Amino acid sequence: xxxxxxxxxxxxxxxxxxxxxxxxxxxxxxxxxxxxxxxxxxxxxxxxxxxxxxxxxxxxxxxxxxxxxxxxxxxxxxxxxxxxxxxxxxxxxxx
Length: 95
Description:
This protein has one domain (8-86): Winged helix-like DNA-binding domain superfamily/Winged helix DNA-binding domain (Arc Repressor Mutant, subunit A, Orthogonal Bundle). 49% of the residues lie in helices and 11% in strands. It has 4 helices and 3 strands, in the order αβααββα. The chain has helices spanning 7-18, 30-40, 45-58, 77-86; strands spanning 28-29, 62-65, 71-74. The protein has a 3-stranded antiparallel beta sheet. The radius of gyration is 12 Å and the shape is globular. The two termini are 23 Å apart.
């Protein structure tokens, strides 16, 4: 991987990108994201989801919105777009 992101982290990043979770008032619910993740990667489990989220948070790709139920959004759009397009995902230029 050219940017150091795994398939799991790229999947989460792509889900947030396609859902247009690009600002603090447009977050994606963590439980819903976890459910979608477990459908895609049923053999990896819940701990793998937490590790993927933690990696994205630590590297500055996403930010957590602390509410009753945590939400996530892409906080560094150019970095996320570069990572996704570097792995063959189609992203819109000029965001």
